[in-house]
Structure formats: C-alpha cells, structure tokens
Amino acid sequence: MTDPNTGLLGLALEAARRAGDFLRDGRPADLAVAATKTSAIDVVTEMDIASEKMITGFLADRRPEDGFLGEEGASTEGTSGVRWIIDPLDGTVNYLYGRPAWAVSIAAERDGVTVVGVVHAPMRGETCRAVLGGGAHLDDRPLHVNAAPALDRALVGTGFGYLADRKAHQAAVAARIIPEVRDIRRGGSAAIDLCDVATGRLDAYYERGLNPWDYAAGELIAREAGALTGGRPGAPASTELAVAAPPGLFEPLQERLEAYGAWHDGTLG
C-alpha cells in the first residue's frame, strides 16, 4: 500500500522549489548594498509574503481541505486532518545581506503529528527532506547524524533573537556553553541548522524563541536522521527551547541548557 505521506512529500518538494526559485531569481542584485535602508527591508518583507502566498496557493489548489499555519499570517484549520506549517523565507537577514544560508521550510502535520518535512536551500543547491518513519535524505543521499562526541568535542549551533533583552540573555548562556564545547556556530536559519545536525555539519543545535514554522520541518529531518529532539527536560521542542543532538550528546547539553536558564529571558541560574 502506498504511504499517503509520500504524496504530501511530493507536494511539499514542488512548492518549496517554486518558492525558492522565486526568491532566488526575484531578489534585486543591489539589495545587499541597501541592506540597512527601510526600502530594502520592505522589499524582503514583500518577497516573504509573496513566497507564502505562492506556497499556500499551490497547496490549496491541490488539497483544498487542508489547514495552514504560516509565518506571514496564513492560519486556517482545514477539515482533512492535514495542516501545512510554512516558513516561506527562513533566514531573512541572511537573504537581505546576500548571504546564502536561507531556505524555504515546509512541514505537513497529520492529526497533530509532523509527517513530512522539506527544507530547500536554493543558494546551497540542496534540499533536505524526511517522511515520518522513512528516514531523512539530502537530495537522494540518506542522512545520519554524527556519532555523539563528548560534550567538549561537540560543534554546537545556536541562534539569537531580535529583542535586545532576549539577545543579551542568549549571549550570556552561550558564554557559559562555549568553554564546555568544541565551539559555537551561529548560521542565521534554524531550518538549515537543524538540517546541518542531520547531515553531520553540526553535532548539536539549540535555540530559544523559535516558532513552529521555524523548526517543524527541520526537527523531523534531524529526528529521522537519528537525532533526539525536544525542549526542556521531558518537554517537546517549543518557543521556550528547541534542542537537537544525537543520543549521548543530547542529554548533557539539555541538562546544561536547563541549568543555565536557556529557556527564559531572565538572569542566569
């Protein structure tokens, strides 16, 4: 019997490809020069909104009974039990400055469980994908996380929010983590960072302040590649905290993040 999620994967791949082509080919060549100007930011916002409309329109034409949750405002319940979770441009600041680490992220939930994830990074020329129970792939190559290193040999990705107070606390947490790991990387796209755990380009990743559209697809890809994912101890990934790492590294990293208060915006514990 054909897995019904395979059809959802095909739609997600095509929608992500179309949106990625639009964002790559429609980006003004001089946008980076004007990156600090309001006019440039407005252009990126318009591209972001147009990308989401392109994705939701494509999917709604083919599956009109499905629901949607998108970063740029798409929010419908649907009646099919399937909901699409969409970040039409993850890594907006990277896109604004002409940096390559941006992506289109599309996940599909069935009855509240994420069953499909696609992260398409046009400037990398890469598409990571996963189907629940079917493993994760980079294009056609199966993905597997790194074997867990000791914490002090782990390369860990993270991110920082836009609000000054949150960013200051995140920096303080990172300052506590850095001496305990090999090093820290800040890529600027949660979806890509989670895929980098799946591909072995990072050993682990954590961040506070993510929304479901930031992590839904990448989390499934990381998990299907062998990572453990979650938030605070005993809790799933959420806006409070998202963590991904192979078994054996996940636990000590999560313990430290809990102890250092990585899940809130206040003073360190």
TrEMBL record:
It catalyses: a myo-inositol phosphate + H2O = myo-inositol + phosphate. The keyword Hydrolase applies. One of its GO terms (molecular function) is inositol monophosphate 1-phosphatase activity. It holds the Pfam family Inositol_P. Mg(2+) 1 binds at E71, D87, L89, D214. GO terms for biological process: inositol metabolic process; phosphatidylinositol phosphate biosynthetic process; signal transduction. Keywords: Hydrolase, Magnesium, Metal-binding. Its EC number is 3.1.3.25. Mg(2+) 2 binds at D90. Its cofactor is Mg(2+). Belongs to the inositol monophosphatase superfamily. This is Inositol-1-monophosphatase. It comes from Streptomyces gougerotii. The gene is suhB.
